[in-house]
Design goal:
By secondary structure, the chain is an alpha/beta fold. The chain contains 16 helices and eleven strands. The strands form two sheets. Strands 1, 2, 3, 4, 5, 6, 7, 10 and 11 form a nine-stranded mixed beta sheet that branches. Strands 8-9 form a two-stranded antiparallel ribbon. Helix 1 crosses helix 9 and helix 4 crosses helix 5.
């Protein structure tokens, strides 16, 4: 990402002299909004809550309790919980127009939609005791999101809706959190009715692109480059790239190519008029430790807990000298999977290996032209993915185990 930032700054400094920045697309208002404001902007009901985890993190949770047209007083409106991926926020589910954003589509289809924000992202940066300025605040990876965040969020949803079970939808790291939680915590498995996994991440043997370069940076150099706190914060520079660079008629090509270099080269399928939203809302921030956990997985070729770097520390955290694996054979929840042929992060070989280990796969679909983010922002995501998700949800809608 550093080359993009450097290029953006250079073009900004030199652009005025060459009139490069004069031809901008109209800015989308959502580029400057938080998640609640984005929901309300399109006329949907918006609620916001805080879930407090057992280890003290305060998570911002958004809710779309019903659609714009269906009855707000409907009893037993099934709950769907959406979990974003690494370096993203809940906004990823509502960044497109309502007819192609899963959060809005589910609300209009009759579901009570909850949108999570993982610890450390721009909307979940509070703690009962720790300051985000401290190193201790950022000492987490998706292990803690699975162990603490998801249980706290499900408890909050149960308290507010009085429903025993939810449907879980994850993208990228959102699937990792779900798999880790369901394989280690039977209580969580009992609370999840169906598991919908888009571009799932577990085993990472079939990874390509710049991420592989990051995985092979020596540990000491990685700390020098990225520190030990937040990894790629959502700050003014990110906003500048989203609103000024990526919203420019000419320079938007840089942003398009950057997305493709990270997530998979294919024909651009996202709505280019929404690029300023994608880039101003993301990256949403996470910890360096979270990123290092994924990079460890690439090197070790095993889906396992975070490796603390030496047997003594691992013994302290796990009562064994090596990180414990996440056993996918224990994920008994009915699981549907969508994955892309052009995905550089969730490679088809890895997903097929994951499918072979899961005991209750009810559906899986390889989409030849899709990369990693097309599941969120693709113009044809409704046709390839969302319509199938809604059809499967409707199948469970009338079952009597709420």
């Amino acid at each position: 990402m550093w080359w993009l930032l450097a290029t953006a700054c250079f073009l900004h400094l030199t652009g005025s002299a060459h009139c490069w920045f004069t031809e901008k697309h109209p800015e989308n208002p959502e580029a400057r909004m938080n998640v609640s404001e984005m929901i309300s902007y399109w006329g949907y009901p918006s609620e916001e809550y805080e879930a407090i985890t057992q280890d003290g993190y305060i998570l911002s949770i958004n809710r779309i309790p019903h659609g714009k047209t269906n009855n707000p007083h409907s009893v037993h409106r099934p709950v769907v919980y959406l979990q974003h991926g690494l370096l993203m926020t809940a906004s990823c589910w509502i960044s497109n127009l309502p007819n192609n954003s899963l959060g809005f589509l589910l609300a209009d289809a009759g579901y009570d939609v909850w949108l999570g924000n993982s610890r450390g992202n721009v909307w979940s940066r509070k703690h009962l005791r720790l300051s985000p300025e401290s190193k201790e605040f950022w000492s987490f990876s998706y292990d803690e999101m699975a162990k603490y965040d998801l249980p706290a969020i499900l408890d909050l949803i149960k308290k507010k809706t009085h429903q025993k079970k939810v449907h879980y939808v994850g993208h990228s790291q959102g699937t990792t959190i779900g798999f880790a939680a369901m394989s280690t915590n039977p209580r969580i498995s009992k609370r999840i009715k169906t598991n919908f996994a888009m571009a799932p991440i577990s085993i990472l043997n079939d990874v390509h692109g710049p991420t592989v370069v990051l995985a092979h940076i020596p540990e000491k150099l990685f700390k020098i480059l990225f520190g030990e706190k937040e990894f790629f914060p959502n700050n003014f520079l990110v906003h500048f790239i989203g609103r000024d660079v990526c919203n420019n008629e000419i320079l938007s090509t840089i942003c398009d190519n950057f997305l493709l270099s990270l997530f998979g080269f294919n024909t651009i399928k996202f709505n280019k008029s929404r690029t300023d939203i994608y880039f101003s809302q993301n990256p949403g921030g996470s910890s360096v430790q979270d990123m290092r956990h994924f990079l460890q997985t690439i090197r070790s070729k095993r889906f396992e807990a975070y490796d603390w770097g030496n047997p003594v520390l691992n013994m302290k955290y796990y009562n064994q000298s090596t990180p414990p694996p996440y056993d996918m054979s224990k994920v008994k929840v009915p699981t549907a999977i969508w994955f892309g042929e052009k995905d550089l992060l969730s490679g088809p070989k890895d997903v097929k290996q994951l499918i072979s280990k899961l005991p209750n796969v009810i559906h899986h679909k390889l989409i030849p032209a899709y990369n990693h983010v097309d599941f969120l922002w693709g113009n044809d995501a409704y046709f390839h993915v969302y319509s199938e998700v809604i059809a499967m949800l409707n199948h469970y809608k009338n079952l009597d185990d709420w």
